[in-house]
Task: inverse folding
């Protein structure tokens, strides 16, 4: 199963990717998490990406395409994977096709802009593994600590309201057109994102034709 999760910032891509990856026993590839790790480690890619991310802008396509092509070639991707946050532009989607990377299904998690800001203000992410929590909708078992790896939970730098607004604008301008791209390929399925986490998971599994 090769699956793309599309959606606005805060739609729940990361949250759903973690749950579905565990159920299907395939890895989830989050370009956002990979870039944040690169920034923490001070790698050349991290240094290049930081300014773009802090300002809510997209990182250049060639950087992203390079990261994803290298990642999907690894052994753990042999039985499939979930792409969370990639592609984000038409050229990124075209690069996947050109590399012969055929996706089985593209799920767009649909959500109104109005809901997003409240989600972002309550979000906490693990500083070690990148897992996403919400102080009300999805709290960790122990405050401030990641359930999965024990890492410290922090607020993402790009979750400031003005940066969230910028990311939303970029989504509507650059990323939303991917729905039409994948609809033409007959791969697009829409799922309602403004519902409890487990209900969105159920709808994604149903869209994939898998019994929950
Ligand atoms: P990235 O990390 O991908 O951020 P994003 O797309 O803006 O999406 P988010 O991670 O903010 O939201 P999400 O949909 O994963 O929501 P989550 O599950 O956390 O990218 C960051 C930056 O990296 C970009 O701005 C760009 O600079 C760069 N980048 C990354 N990929 C790139 C690419 N391909 N090309 C170019 N640049 C790239 O949920 C949000 C919150 O809501 C959480 O607190 C969660 O607990 C809560 N929540 C989730 N679902 C529900 C629900 N159903 N009900 C209530 N609360 C919920
Ligand atoms: Mg995410």
Result:
């Amino acid at each position: 199963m090769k699956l793309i999760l599309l959606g606005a910032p805060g739609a729940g891509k990361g949250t759903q990717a973690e749950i579905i990856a565990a159920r299907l026993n395939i890895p989830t590839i989050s370009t956002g998490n990979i870039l944040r790790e690169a920034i923490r480690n001070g790698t050349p890619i991290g240094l290049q990406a930081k300014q773009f991310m802090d300002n809510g802008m997209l990182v250049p396509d060639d950087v992203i395409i390079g990261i994803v092509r290298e990642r999907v070639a690894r052994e753990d991707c042999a039985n499939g994977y979930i792409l969370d946050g990639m592609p984000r532009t038409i050229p990124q989607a075209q690069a996947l096709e050109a590399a012969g990377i055929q996706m089985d299904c593209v799920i767009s998690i649909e959500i109104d802009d109005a809901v997003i800001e409240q989600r972002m203000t309550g979000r906490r992410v693990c500083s070690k593994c990148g897992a996403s929590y919400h102080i009300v909708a999805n709290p960790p078992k122990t405050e401030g600590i990641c359930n999965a790896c024990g890492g410290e939970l922090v607020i993402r730098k790009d979750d400031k309201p003005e940066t969230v607004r910028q990311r939303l604008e970029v989504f509507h301008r650059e990323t939303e057109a991917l729905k039409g791209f994948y609809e033409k390929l007959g791969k697009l399925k829409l799922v309602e994102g403004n519902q409890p986490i487990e209900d969105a998971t159920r709808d994604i599994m149903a869209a994939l034709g898998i019994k929950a």
Summary: The chain has a mean pLDDT of 95.
